[in-house]
Amino acid sequence: MATPIERALGVFHETVARVPAYRAFLAEQGIDAGQVRDEAAFRALPLMTKENYFRRFPLDARCREGALARAEMIAVSSGSTGEPTFWPRTARDEALVAERFEQVFYDSFRADERTTLAVICFPLGTWVGGMYTTSGCRTLAAKGHKVTVVTPGNVKDEILRVVVALAPSFEQVVLLGYPPFLKDVVDTARARGIDPAPWHAKLVLAGEVVSEEWRTLLAERLGQGNILYDSASLYGTADAGVLATETPLSIALRRFFGAHPDLARERFGESRLPTLAQYDPLARYFEEHDGTLLFTADGGVPLVRYHIADTGGIAEFGAMMEFARARGFVMPAGLNERGLRELPFVWVFGRSHFTVSFFGANVFPENVTVALEEAPIHTWVTGKFVLMAEEDTAQDRRLRLVVELAPGVAADDDKIEAIAAAVVRALMLRSSEFAHYVPKERQRPEVMLAPAGDPTWFPVGVKHRYTRNTRPTSA
């Protein structure tokens, strides 16, 4: 069997042979592909980024034989300006991603034994999540797993309608979607007097990092019985589909690190918890680069040493287990052989670029800036702000915006309302993901106005950060 680096070198050489854009990319830098025969030479190859590759070469040139028409399906993701990025797919690509869904449905949910209703709660249409997830789940059904797929999309009333009607015919229900949206679905059900416990619900999550407190809360509200086996987060991207999955073992480790922030900082470099997942190194070849992740993966647009700009890291299976055991981790009694795969680990905090992930949509500061430049708002503010996505005391996800007022300008409710409305307009206009992923009732940000030079949010003489993961301790 080929080793991971041999597989990565195979993707590289096939990409050179068949993809015109990549040949041109290497030629510009004077690289002789024939000399790239080992790991050292591979790791010396230039990084592929959206700036130096995707935005410079036409889409056709980035496909095999320079022909987009060879793709069998095209998915779309929107960038900071709302300009779409197109991601060609083939049946081979989707088969690889289906293996990751199979890992979750087999290992965690035992869908080979239990009749399972898979409810697709991601947005449907051209966007990556819904159709890709639907394809993966239908592949499981075709392979003989006891999976039946229903596709209400991200419409709460439709989700509840189909689940209430269909759940009694199945042994379990799997809800697949963005974490804050799925919580909203569960909370809405409970508010309407619907008891979700008889669903025997499982969760497949993607798009955002969730806290272990969030996982525990949802388990309680759904009446779940095994915290390690009842949910799994996917590390996925529009660029290459699902890269890695949470496993019962990785969840057990994450909960251990969550209870020991000092150990989390020692292992991951930060006390906050990343998503901790395991990956197949023969399907996705990961590398670490200055605290961020690179990967090589075959696909409709092959990716070689692609710098996705996610902050994170990797560790071999043995190294991670040795680290954890040496610091007191004990394998939970309920962890069985289905939850134990000796695969390497990858952890991810999120994009290193200054974006905020909200209901699976990237909220870019540039779009907030546009809103603050509207008249008369630009006369009230300095242009500085802090954008955050936070969980409130009810564990609901909120988009919060702190805006610095110009000197001498006083805060009032009219200004708050005008800024919130302008931000919603800007995001709806420039981000199709925000418009379609974020429920209407959550699109309006909670706005706070701070005086110029506020030491908590806008300290003088300090390089300003437009996004934060958490509030300052003094706030």
UniProtKB/TrEMBL annotation:
<keyword id="KW-0436">Ligase</keyword>
<dbReference type="GO" id="GO:0016874">
    <property type="term" value="F:ligase activity"/>
</dbReference>
<protein>
    <submittedName>
        <fullName>Phenylacetate--CoA ligase family protein</fullName>
    </submittedName>
</protein>
<dbReference type="InterPro" id="IPR042099">
    <property type="entry name" value="ANL_N_sf"/>
</dbReference>
